[in-house]
Design brief:
Layout: E1 4-10, H1 17-28, H2 34-42, H3 44-52, E2 61-64, E3 69-75, H4 77-82, E4 101-106, H5 111-119, E5 125-129, H6 141-146, H7 152-156
Parallel strand pairs: 1-3, 4-5
Antiparallel strand pairs: 2-3, 2-4
Helix pairs in contact: 1-3
Length: about 160
Amino acid sequence: MSTVFRRTFASSPARDAHETWTAIVDLLTRACPVADREELIAVAGTAASTISDQAPRDVPIVVSCDGPRTRIYCLYDEDAVEGSDSNEDVLGYDPLKGDWAISLPCLTDDLGWVQSALARHSKRITARDVSDGLSADAGTKSDAAAGLTFDPAGFLGS
């Protein structure tokens, strides 16, 4: 069964989009090889663009690996300044363990150039349309291999 953890980062105006991405990278790379960190830093400008567009306000950055999945949201405006809803705590696992991937939410109008820019630096860091919501989180290789599916009726007891 796949476990999902959530982290929420204070962004603008508490920190700018690039600083927000750097904080996210710091969280994700505490226990990983330098090459993984360099791959995340290589896409900093593009990732910061999606953060400054407030794409991860309601639709998360999704990090999948051979372990638990991580969803990362950002806070903006007064919520970012107050910070009471932020949770930037260290994860108790390596979120980039094994075959990892990161999917960034992106505004529809920017999706083409963001996907192209990310592809120049990484095959594991991609972008998806914010209107797709969590679709990058559903049906990953590990879930498909394990035969896991979500049954809303069973979950709700219907």
